[in-house]
């Protein structure tokens, strides 16, 4: 009676293990073929945010077909902040001066966005303080440019009543400046904006320096000291005529803290390791830099991005969760077969097959202990030779059909374990390369 119960229990263990193996295999195949789509909030279609987002989407999909980034047009940083905090999008581009909730995490610093003070030559504006009494075109409320103008003007001792402001879109502002309807335009923009480049080709339009970056950082720590390089807008003339000191903020790519670790790690990896491809699509990518001191910048980074910046590979158990689960199930199968073997040996039902089974037990232990692919190949050949000899013994009645069955199961476990061990080692070496 006890033997019957033990046999039934062993059968249940085997069946349960097979079910687990099947479910894990299905899950692994499903996730391996699944394409994940992330929505990225950018900016206006004629702006740098939208153009960069489109380039990023293209390069990410090119380098990993299982990740698609859908770019949507928005009004800019303020709207993007709302969308990401409300989980209506999974990625967003913001200016680095934008305050965000703890649930929103940074993926990467992107390109710098320079403070551009564009004026007419006949306006007699040569520095920020000379905006007093002038007509200034600002970007619409809610834009990063609009929000940053006020602390800038305050730093230079200007009050709101000291000048007349007009809120216009970038195109409307450039047109108004060209026609003399305003004296100056203030806009925060990355280098390379085509409309701005075209405007600056006119001899009556010029850029004004915005210095005192260190002093401005006392009230706005996110500002960077920067320059608009000589010839940035025309190398022949050149425009500007010399390196022009300005201040800048940096565009940042953010996500929600609950977005999958592996997705964000992969996007960060592509962003930096496929930089040359990205630059061909959008020149602003050339100015992307890794955070120099993540802890001191006041930003909270997504764990997936941090893993890349720290040059750590994703946690082995996270990366190989499915294959490890499969290996665990195979181990259960192996244990159950060995348990059956132990019952066989304890009941003194020893025959020629026992020696083979004992040998298999030792081989399985060797498989788990080796990290050498050459040794695994030798073990694989050894298993094939053992199987060939057992078949010969079965044919010559040296072992019974029942004994052959007791051998076949652990032999299959040993062969499967060898193959899986080879896969784990190869994947580990690829991840570390």
Automatic annotation (TrEMBL):
Write down the PANTHER family for this protein, in alphabetical order.
SLL1037 PROTEIN (PTHR42941:SF1)
Q: Which UniProt keywords apply?
A: Membrane, Transmembrane, Transmembrane helix
What transmembrane ranges does the database entry give? 9-30
Top-level taxonomic group: Bacteria
Does the record's keyword annotation contain Membrane?
Answer: yes
From the UniProt record, list the coiled-coil ranges.
none
One short Pfam family name for this protein?
NMT1_3
UniProt-listed InterPro entries: TRAP_TAXI (IPR011852)
Is the Translocase keyword given for this protein? Answer: no
Tell me the NCBIfam families matching this sequence.
TRAP_TAXI
Q: Which organism is it from?
A: Aphanothece hegewaldii CCALA 016
Q: What is the lineage of its organism?
A: Bacteria, Bacillati, Cyanobacteriota, Cyanophyceae, Oscillatoriophycideae
* Protein's name in the database: C4-dicarboxylate ABC transporter substrate-binding protein
């Amino acid at each position: 009676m006890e033997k019957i119960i033990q046999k039934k229990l062993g059968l249940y263990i085997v069946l349960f293990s097979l079910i687990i193996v099947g479910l894990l295999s299905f899950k692994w195949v499903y996730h391996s073929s699944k394409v994940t789509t992330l929505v990225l909030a950018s900016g206006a279609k004629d702006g740098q945010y939208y153009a960069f987002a489109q380039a990023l989407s293209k390069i990410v999909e090119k380098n990993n077909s299982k990740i698609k980034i859908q770019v949507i047009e928005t009004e800019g940083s303020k709207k993007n902040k709302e969308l990401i905090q409300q989980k209506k999008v999974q990625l967003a581009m913001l200016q680095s001066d934008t305050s965000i909730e703890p649930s929103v995490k940074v993926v990467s610093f992107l390109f710098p966005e320079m403070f551009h003070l564009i004026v007419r030559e006949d306006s007699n504006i040569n520095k920020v303080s000379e905006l007093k009494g002038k007509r200034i075109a600002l970007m619409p409320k809610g834009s990063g440019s609009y929000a940053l103008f006020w602390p800038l003007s305050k730093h230079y001792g200007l009050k709101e009543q000291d000048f007349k402001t007009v809120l216009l879109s970038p195109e409307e502002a450039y047109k108004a400046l060209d026609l003399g309807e305003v004296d100056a335009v203030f806009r925060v923009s990355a280098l390379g904006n085509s409309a701005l480049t075209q405007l600056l080709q006119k001899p009556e339009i010029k850029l004004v320096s915005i210095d005192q970056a260190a002093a401005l950082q006392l009230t706005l720590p996110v500002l960077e000291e920067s320059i608009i390089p000589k010839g940035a807008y025309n190398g022949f003339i050149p425009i500007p005529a010399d390196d022009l000191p300005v201040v800048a903020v940096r565009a940042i790519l953010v996500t929600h803290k609950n977005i999958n670790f592996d997705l964000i790690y992969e996007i960060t990896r592509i962003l930096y390791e496929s930089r040359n491809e990205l630059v061909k699509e959008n020149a602003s990518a050339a100015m992307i830099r890794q955070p120099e001191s993540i802890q001191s910048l006041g930003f909270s980074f997504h764990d997936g991005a941090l893993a890349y910046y720290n040059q750590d590979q994703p946690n082995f158990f996270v990366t190989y969760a499915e294959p490890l689960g499969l290996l665990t199930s195979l181990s259960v199968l192996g244990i159950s077969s060995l348990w059956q073997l132990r019952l066989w040996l304890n009941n003194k039902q020893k025959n020629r097959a026992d020696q083979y089974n004992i040998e298999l037990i030792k081989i399985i232990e060797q498989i788990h202990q080796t990290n050498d692919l050459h040794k695994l190949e030798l073990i694989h050949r050894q298993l094939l030779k053992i199987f060939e000899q057992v078949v010969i013994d079965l044919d010559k009645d040296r072992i019974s059909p029942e004994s052959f069955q007791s051998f076949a199961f652990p032999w299959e476990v040993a062969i499967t374990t060898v193959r899986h061990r080879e896969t784990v080692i190869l994947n580990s070496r690829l991840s570390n390369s």
